[in-house]
Amino acid sequence: MKRSLGAKTLLYPTPVLVVGSYHADGRPNVMTAAWGGIACSKPPCVCVSLRAATATHGNLIARKAFTISLPNSAQAAAADYFGLVSGRKTDKFAATGLTPVRSELVDAPYVAEFALVLECEVTAVHELGLHTQFVGEVKDVKIDEACLDEDGHIDTAKLDPLAFAPETGAYFALGALIGRAFSLGKSFVAKEGS
Amino acid sequence: MKRSLGAKTLLYPTPVLVVGSYHADGRPNVMTAAWGGIACSKPPCVCVSLRAATATHGNLIARKAFTISLPNSAQAAAADYFGLVSGRKTDKFAATGLTPVRSELVDAPYVAEFALVLECEVTAVHELGLHTQFVGEVKDVKIDEACLDEDGHIDTAKLDPLAFAPETGAYFALGALIGRAFSLGKSFVAKEGS
């Protein structure tokens, strides 16, 4: 039996996106957002939605660039802090002891200590209501070599990304491997032919 | 030391979104997409990106509506199958033994057996390249009562949503609870004041 919960943004899980940008005076800033994801394969694009009230929103409008740094489970407290306070008055890098690195490809900083980084140019801005959606074309992905397996592929367990649950506001680590895409479902393809 | 992987859509995790729509002849269809997420809080909006080659893309253009049904880990094979074959020639509901339910709010069907359902009206269509991004305003969320706790909140463990890892194409269950948003990061706020 299903119960109606009303019109809400309940979708599970969301990623935990630490968005890097420069203030007008050149200071590096980061904020954490969970409303976003992958938007297009070619060109490779991601999207992230920000409220106009945030400093990061203004920075992305002005600089047309941002980074996404992905925290792991041990970095969850810092990532959560990045969403708690405004970068207008606070140096969030100094407060957490993390290191801003200037991207060589886009006009934005990323977090040195976070293993996976996407460097993005803003290619579209969509006003959706309370949130503005920024579409960013990925110019490069950088990853800590420690998170790669022997074949140079990303080892998800070593990356250890956070998954976010709206409503309860819980951060989870990833758990058991359930199966592989374009493989697990083949059992039903076989049934079709039988 | 970071290594460059090139311009790719590597963001972790993504949700596993089973998108329900009606074909022109009224047959219900579902496909699975991982490029999407929450897009706006007010009005509540989600987004999902689809290739123009898919039947679902045409259905959403024509009907201006879709649903998202969230599979749990035991339903991963069916969800994967929904992404393996085209609904143009195949009745994916019949093949998996799952049940289409006509939404009373939007012109689209959802999967009865999947615990969480979002009923959405298409409010914007963004051509990004290979993928078209559909923004859907959430008209209602419906959930199996078995996934609610005593207070009527979603119990994420009972919902048991899938998390997807691009590149490796792995489906994961959620794992350990790491902490709570707007709480975990307060340790750094305390340090500011010290």
By oligomeric state, this entry counts as homodimer
Strand content of chain A: 35-45%
Determine the most extensive contact between two protein chains: A-B, 103 and 103 residues
How many H/I helical runs of chain A?
Answer: 5
- Number of separate strands of chain A: 13
Low-confidence blocks of residues of chain A: none
Structure, explained:
2 copies of one chain form a homodimer. By secondary structure, chain A is an alpha+beta fold. Chain A is 17% helix and 43% strand. The first copy, chain A, contains 5 helices and 13 strands. A 7-stranded antiparallel beta sheet of chain A has the order 4-3-7-10-11-6-5. In chain A, strands 2-12-13 form a 3-stranded antiparallel beta sheet, with no helix packed on it. In chain A, strand 3 (17-22) and strand 4 (28-33) form a beta hairpin. The radius of gyration of chain A is 18 Å and the shape is globular. The first copy, chain A, starts with a strand and ends with a helix. Chains A and B meet through strand 1, strand 2, strand 5, strand 6 and helix 2 of A and strand 1, strand 2, strand 5, strand 6 and helix 2 of B. Strand 1 (2-6) of chain A pairs antiparallel with strand 11 (131-144) of chain B, so a sheet runs across the interface.
